[in-house]
Design goal:
The complex is a heterodimer of chains A (about 475) and B (about 220). Chain A is mainly α. Chain A contains 19 helices and no strands. In chain A, helix 5 packs antiparallel against helix 6 (about 145-180), helix 10 packs antiparallel against helix 13 and helix 11 packs parallel to helix 17 (about 405-430). Chain A is globular and about 65 Å long. The mean pLDDT of chain A is about 90. Chain B is mainly α and about 220 residues long. Chain B starts with a helix and ends in a 7-residue tail after the last helix. Classes of the chains: A mainly alpha (about 475), B mainly alpha (about 220). Chains A and B meet through helix 5, helix 6, helix 8 and helix 9 of A and helix 4, helix 5, helix 6, helix 7 and helix 8 of B.
């Protein structure tokens, strides 16, 4: 097999994981980690220029190409942030060198698993990859080995496994539905074959399969009421992992759902997956918006905000149609960039304050102007205020919904406003007012944070026509 | 397909559901592990029978994994962990035995109604297998919900996975990749669980999941 971009996005993280597991020394491994993610990003970008033919196991098309580039980009910036973050954790003794080695290896395994899940053309392989990603993040969440971290990891593990188990049952049902049409064997699990012939599958079996898949992968997306693991996992793991979880892993699970949604859409007699996704999306949005108010831990606050935004994205994809899908894709991209930037800021904020309790933070713009203002910009962006990118995408979601289902749009707007107020309220006490935290100088890496926020700002002001055309093309694929 | 093929497969899958019920009301950890071993053993027999009926030799591998790994290695290892942690006392259930059994019966009825109605076109063997498998999966979930003890939840999860293997082997000609992945995932899952149990012991001196709840971030 010749070396191409597709092999690269899988091989580079796999090799890097093996190397990082063997090499000692924090400085070398942190740099190697960054180098590996850079190479993966380059391989992912090369997929735009040439992609291999879909096989029985792997596939690259416009849809997952977009996801792969987003994943590898955020993976790259997070690795830069992670280098300075982990350095600090080593310094204060929260992590010991063996754990750092383990952490770096796991980081690459996670990147490998996410890329594999995205490029899998086989629903069985996709399931295996998502399971691998889950197990890796379980280990990462528990890495601090405090009471809270262990509880979070245990809860994540149990809920994640149940979700994964339900998803496997759904996958088996899809195979059962495909078997009479396609015949026994490998072909009946290959996605491109499935979608081409989904029209003649037994619709009842497909319906049941989708319900299981929605519950299973929906748990991993963090949709209410299956979200219970998410805030704990975000709050207790190392912050780079919170950034990757929120910015990437939730997307990957959603991507799996989208693939199966396309399968159902290809069968006229099957149930429409839209209303189910719309319901779960709205429920997550409104629920998470209210949960924002009484948070005391800063990372839990933004974890609930992730649930809120995954709700909006699921809602948009559930509505379907070119405009709503476009809005959903844009919102997903913007959310990934913004939320990871926020977690970069939050990681440093928690490190300089020595705590994650919101009550112990205050006047951050005064004590640490650069950090404080970046966090402010990030929160303003995530709350959906103009002129940043999330405003554009939320506006598109709302306006396209108003045109088709005004009542749903009302609930949507209600949730958005409640969430906005909740976030700004918390931001006020963290960034402004009486300085409460220590004034120690922060040793932070600002570049990833600034890069993300700049991209979000640019997208809010001016979207290049090429990008718009690309997203429109992908939205068209989603149907 | 001959009559006997169908009857034996039916008998084994039905036994699996029955053993799931047995697991529901065990109130001692050792007994629970023994019942789980029986569960895994029945699964191995069922998978082996499917391998024979479908003439699919690779399924014998799955059966062997179920027999060696799930029916012997895991129960023995968990047994040792229990001894080592000194937790061989009675397990508390969140809900009483009566309501749990009633809920279990409701779940089995539900899965029969759902699966048999939907799969009327599929061949009878796969159809009933799938209905039984869904029952086992749901009973495993129920067990995880009703147990407070971490070991109890793990056993619930493993019996749930047994249901998945039953479903996967019942689906004729399903590619090997999935079976291997299931076995592999159980292996990984078990390692993870093992690590967790030890860490939990190290930090809490208990494997009662309720003790973990106290440390939830929102109740500081």
């Amino acid at each position: 097999m010749s070396f191409d971009g597709l092999t690269g996005v899988l091989l580079v993280p796999a090799v890097a994981a093996a190397l990082l597991a063997l090499l000692p020394g924090y400085r070398v491994t942190a740099r190697l980690n960054v180098l590996a993610t850079t190479l993966t990003l380059i391989c992912a970008l090369s997929l735009f220029f040439g992609r291999p033919q879909p096989g029985n196991y792997l596939l690259v098309d416009d849809l997952n190409g977009t996801f792969v580039v987003l994943t590898t980009f955020v993976g790259f910036t997070t690795s830069v942030f992670s280098a300075s973050y982990i350095g600090h954790e080593l310094e204060i003794g929260r992590l010991t060198p063996p754990f750092v080695r383990f952490y770096h290896a796991m980081y690459q395994v996670l990147m490998f698993a996410m890329n594999l899940a995205l490029v899998a053309n086989n629903i069985g392989l996709m399931w295996v990859a998502i399971e691998l990603a889950t197990l890796t993040t379980v280990l990462m969440v528990g890495i601090y080995r405090t009471h809270e971290a262990l509880e979070a990891a245990w809860k994540y593990f149990i809920l994640g496994s149940v979700g994964i188990a339900l998803a496997l049952f759904g996958t088996i049902l899809v195979y059962m539905a495909a078997k009479p049409v396609i015949g026994e064997g490998l072909g009946a699990m290959v996605w491109t074959v499935l979608v081409a012939r989904a029209g003649s599958f037994d619709p009842a079996l497909l319906d049941l399969a989708f319900v299981f898949l929605l519950l299973g992968y929906g748990t991993k997306v963090g949709l209410a009421p299956l979200h219970a693991w998410l805030p704990d996992a975000h709050a207790e793991g190392p912050t780079p992992i919170s950034a990757v979880l929120s910015g990437l892993l939730l997307n990957v699970a959603l991507y799996a759902l989208l693939r199966f949604k396309m399968l159902l859409a290809a069968n006229a007699a099957a149930l429409a997956p839209g209303p189910l996704m719309v319901t779960l999306g709205l429920l997550s949005l409104v629920f998470a918006a209210f949960m924002l108010y009484r948070r005391r831990d800063i990372k839990r606050l933004f974890a609930y905000s992730s649930i809120e935004h995954m709700g909006i994205i699921t809602f948009a994809f559930g509505m379907g149609g070119p405009l709503a899908n476009f809005a959903g894709l844009l919102h997903m991209t913007m959310h990934s960039l913004t939320k990871s930037a926020i977690f970069f800021a939050v990681g440093h904020v928690a490190q300089v304050n020595g705590t994650q309790r919101i009550a112990d933070m205050g006047g951050l713009t005064e004590t640490h102007p650069l950090l404080g203002w970046s966090l402010t910009v990030g929160v303003v962006a995530i709350a959906g205020l103009p002129p940043l990118g999330i405003f554009t995408s939320e506006f598109l979601v709302v306006s396209s919904t108003f045109a088709r289902q005004p009542w749903l749009a009302l609930i949507l707007v209600f949730g958005l406003v409640v969430g906005l107020a909740g976030l700004l309220l918390r931001l006020n006490s963290i960034a402004f007012g009486e300085p409460r935290g220590p004034r120690a100088k922060a040793k932070a890496s600002y570049v990833p944070m600034f890069a993300h926020l700049a991209l979000v700002l640019i997208a809010g002001i001016y979207m290049p026509p090429a990008l718009v055309a690309w997203f429109q093309n992908v939205a068209g694929l989603l149907g | 397909m001959s009559r006997i093929d169908f009857d034996v497969a039916h008998l084994l899958a039905g036994t699996l559901v029955l053993i799931s019920f047995l697991q529901l009301y065990q109130d001692r950890l050792y007994a629970l592990l023994n019942v789980y071993a029986a569960h895994a053993f029945t699964l191995a027999a069922s998978v082996a029978w499917q391998a024979f009926v479908q003439d699919a030799p690779h399924l014998y591998l799955t059966a062997a994994i179920a027999l060696v790994f799930k029916a012997v290695v895991i129960p023995v290892a968990l047994h040792r962990i229990i001894v080592r942690l000194g937790i061989h006392r009675e397990i508390e259930n969140v809900v009483g035995v009566g309501p749990t059994m009633l809920a279990g019966m409701g779940l089995v009825a539900l899965s029969m109604v759902v699966m048999l109605r939907i799969t009327h076109d599929a061949d009878p063997l796969a159809r009933e297998d799938l209905a039984f498998a869904l029952s086992v999966v749901l009973l495993g979930l129920l067990m995880m919900v009703t147990r407070r003890n971490a070991v109890g939840q793990v056993v619930g999860f493993m019996s749930l996975e047994n249901g998945l293997v039953l479903a996967a082997t019942g689906a004729k000609g399903m590619p090997l990749v999935v079976e291997i992945s299931i076995a592999f995932s159980i292996l990984i899952a078990f390692i993870v669980i093992g690590i967790f149990l030890f860490r939990i012991r190290e930090r809490f001196d208990t494997v009662d999941v309720q003790a973990l709840d106290r440390f939830r971030g929102e109740r500081r």
